[in-house]
Specification:
alpha+beta; 5 strands
Length: about 180
Amino acid sequence: MLAYLEGEVLKKDKDFLILKVDKVGYKVLIEPTFHFKLKEGEKVKLYCYLYSKEGLFELYGFPNFEELSLFEKLLQLQGIGPKVALRLSVFKDLESLIQALKAGEVKIQGLGKKKLERLKLELLGILDQEKKEREKINQDLKEALKEMGFDKRTIKEVLSKIDPNLKLAEKIKLALNLLSNKE
């Protein structure tokens, strides 16, 4: 699976660019606001998503991993195709996109008022699920550290220094590292 490209912008159009990597040119679909930041001949790094459906293959490019992650989440929603997901990916995260939807700041051709409202509700559901998963991971970490003999105050202090979006294994490793440096 193609996930990252680094190369020179050979040619650009309003919604895609040709990225030269070694001696191969890749047509990469990009968000129009990102297009204006690029110059032909410029070196660029892109996180990529290869979309395939019914024999069609399209490569989508993003300037950062956050936009790619949001794009992938949006593609899982009913009625959201890659072109709409690409336009919405500029919000970088679910919270920002939901806030923009609530404020009525999202205007995309093909998305009417009802579809935008449904999108907002679906995204709120995803955000709630992610929050519950993070809370469960934090609870599992607290219990693991407690079983290792650490007191509640120390556990709370260590947890405040750890990124809440990490996976459980990463959090345990980081917590143990912080605790070993503390002693």
